[in-house]
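Why show two proteins at once? Because comparison is the fastest way to build intuition. When a single record is shown, students tend to memorize it. When two are placed side by side, the eye starts asking what differs. So, the first record is below.
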Amino acid sequence: MATAGKVIKCKAAVAWEAGKPLSIEEVEVAPPQAMEVRVKILYTALCHTDVYFWEAKGQTPVFPRILGHEAGGIVESVGEGVTELVPGDHVLPVFTGECKDCAHCKSEESNLCDLLRINVDRGVMIGDGQSRFTINGKPIFHFVGTSTFSEYTVIHVGCLAKINPEAPLDKVCVLSCGISTGLGATLNVAKPKKGSTVAIFGLGAVGLAVSDTAMEGAKMAGASRIIGVDLNPEKYEQAKKFGCTDFVNPKDHTKPVQEVLVEMTNGGVDRAVECTGNVNAMISAFECVHDGWGVAVLVGVPHKEAVFKTHPMNFLNERTLKGTFFGNYKPRTDLPEVVEMYMRKELEVEKFITHSVPFSQINTAFDLMLKGEGLRCVMRMGE
């Protein structure tokens, strides 16, 4: 392509300071280096994780920075050593990677790549420790290796999933983070059998969509009962759209919610998926599963000082506790098939997309999420 090997000037939304509105700026995007790919982003969505690190509450502030990690685009050019992708390929950037060479990537049981596992503090490329973004020569930091709030971005090849070019990028872009995480937590990790009962802790978390897709996965697996557990009863109506059949509000009961669920299900649910990050919800999710075969899966990220406490007999009575990262999907290997699930109409993503705005209105997308309005806002680049 005419731009290959050259610096590209384009529009990007730059976060200059924590919690301050993003500023649309003209940035220079350097060519990709070894094992890197420069991608033209066509659509990018706003995830709660972007807001969390924009607010910079409780983590290392890295500014100025180009946020964004849930997107769809087209390969513009590739760096030395890149053989799997060529200009024109349709790709989904992913915040975690798959180098295909480390022990984790070679294992059928793990997706925790040693080289490309998420690093929220690193604001530079992993190859040379430099940024590919500048404004008048001043470096602008990257975010989780993707930085999709830019019309062009540079990403390590291991963090790009090549997908069906017929798939609409304005829809499947949302599969690169939260939706796949929730779906995989149920289908890949909890693995409910047809006719089983599944409890989902935390409904419709703002901007996450994880719990909704966890319910979607349970419905796809043929669960007979999907019980939503949340402190906000207003979330039940929304959750019904994703397969929720029952609702339990812990505040409505004097006994622990796990005891309520055990009584409701004649001994406990077959599977439980926890999506809140609250350690007490995690404990409840584990203690509400049936002895002998019950499996609880933890998706939410707890506070760094949280402590999980339960009686050892809960394990000896053959309950299983598991954790998951990105739904146990290997980005390059597995994500293309998730896109095909959408193409075969086995997975509906449109109901997760509640808003669509031009990229120039990115601060409107932030406002919508901060107000708790909707799940996903997809932004159209080049407008």
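Second record. Ask yourself what differs from the first in the token line.
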Amino acid sequence: MDDVQVVALEFRLFKFKPAVYDFLIPLTESSFYRLDNDTLSEVEQMVGNSDKHITRVLFCGPYFAASHQYTKEYLQKYPFIQVDDVPFAVVPDVISNYNICIVKNMQLTSNIISRATQMKLIMQFGVGLEGVDIDAATKYGIKVARIPGDATGNAASCAEMAIYLMLGLLRKQNEMQISIKQKRLGEPAGETLLGKTVFIMGFGNIGIDLAKRLRPFGVKIIATKRSWALHSEGSLQSDGFLIENGTNDNLVDEKGSHEDIYKFAGVSDIVVCCLSMNKETAGIVNKSFISSMKKGSLLVNIARGGLLDYDAVVHHLESGHLGGLGIDVAWTEPFDPDDPILKFNNVIISPHVAGVTEHSYRFMSKVVGDVALQLHSGNPLTGIEIVN
């Protein structure tokens, strides 16, 4: 393969350097669900057949690089599937050339979608679709889909990050680094998760996985969600966690609805935001909400930055009412490394990596790859949740 592969996109030329990812863990059939035999048979027959059309997959922007890198690797033996990662500014000019769009964290507006004349499917590399104008996509006959987090390991990865942020705040991670630099031993005195009350705000797939993992820490778990309808019966989940009476609801000591969020915040030591981002939830963690939290309690957000009101968070950090902030998502991304919120020792920020694990990204790359193969062969799309 040449050092530089020149790909003609509409009226421009863009250069993409092929990369070799020797360090990546090989995919195995046992690690993921298998593509159905009919689709696999059809696409295998297409390999090397230059008469077949090309199905083109567009990844928007440079961030979350493993998403397009792993997908390219998974599809490298299928020359009739072309995978490109394109800068944000270029997307509107080239989107008409593509059949599938992986939006990631780009705002896909009605204007941009109207140019996608060959587009069949818009997908999120994960769950959140708040950046996609779904009504516009529906108008232009384009399907919009997410990758369910419970099946891919994305929810589990996010749940683990939530625990990481909790422990980092409780054990005073930033102050420990100061102690190391100053050669002080036995400082700071931290806290345990043991005995704490954790409020999971939004008991969806991530909230469920978080509750499962919190149980062994000896915490009280309270949670809110829209509906507490029972799940299907069964005593053992696919991930090996035992669920009493066949329902995830029994993971929670006290259940509430949206009307209970202030009450629950007032009795919690830690509040974890696991909500979806929409018009109703934007800025839901505002001045009134944080004021209702116990003085010195911790706030963790692994969902979307817009759930938290920035000014309210800063105000309550300055006053000392908020005992600590741990966020994997921010109000603007990438986050400004000079933002004044980082001056607080009780603030931990990670660069939107909660779901970015080898396990989840390998799985989601396979889902994207399989969907591209299914679309190319004309077979039904599996492994995704179509929302329109």
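One difference worth noting in the second protein: The first strand starts at residue 5 and ends at 9.
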